[in-house]
Amino acid sequence: MMKSRNDALANAIRNTRSRLGETQATFAQKLGVAVATLARYEIASQQPKPPIIKRLIDLAAQERFTDSERVFRVALSERAERKRRDLGELNLNQVLAHRDEEAIAAFEAELQSSLSKNPKSRVIADAIKGLEEITSRHRKEIEEAVENYRRMLRKQKRTDK
After folding, report:
1. Which domain holds residue 87?
2. Is 48 found in the same domain as 97?
3. Which residue in 146, 161, 9, 147 sits closest to 76, CA to CA?
4. What string of pLDDT tens digits covers the 161 residues of the chain?
5. Rounded to an integer, what distance in angstroms lies between the CA atom of residue 143 and that of residue 148?
6. Same domain, yes or no, for 60 and 87?
7. Statement to judge: residues 8 and 73 lie in one domain
8. Cys bridge to 1: 5, 13, 92, 146, which one at CB 3.0-4.6 A?
C-alpha cells in the first residue's frame, strides 16, 4: 500500500479504538494481538494481517463506523490483490523457466547431433559442456523458485486460517 493508505489505515484503527473508548490494552485483546503490535498498527509501522483486518471490519460494522469500515475493507482488498499478483508472477516465472528448459534441451540435442557428425570438434564439445553447466544452474534456480512458491502457499494457508 502507498504511504497515504498506510496512514489512513493507522488513523482508522486509532479512531475506531478511540470511538469505542478502549485503551490500547483492551483493544489489542479484542483483536487478539499484543499491545506493542497494536501500537505499531496505529503509527503505520506495521500492517495488520487479513484476519485482524476482518476483526476490525466486524467491530466497525457492529458499531456502525462506516468510515472506518470502508478503510478496513479497502486495506483487505488491496492485500488480497497484492497476494494474487505475487502468486501470478511466480506462476509466470515458472512457465517461462519451463519454456527456457525446453529450449535449452532442444539446443543441447542439436549440439549433440553436430558433435556426432564431427566428433573431433572441440568448439562443439566445449559448447555442450558450458550448456550443461548453465542447465544445472538453471535447474537449481527453478527448484528454488518452486520451493519459494510452495513456502508462500503454506504461509498463505496459515495466515488465511
Report:
1. 80-160
2. no
3. 9
4. 445 777 889 999 999 999 999 999 999 999 999 999 999 999 999 999 888 998 898 888 888 888 888 888 888 888 777 776 666 666 655 555 666 666 666 767 777 777 677 777 676 667 767 767 766 776 677 677 767 777 777 777 676 65
5. 9
6. no
7. yes
8. 5
CATH number of domain containing 21: 1.10.260.40
Which positions ≥6 away from 3 have C-beta within 8 Å? Answer: 44
Distance from C-alpha of 10 to C-alpha of 158, rounded to nearest angstrom: 24
The number of domains in the chain is 2
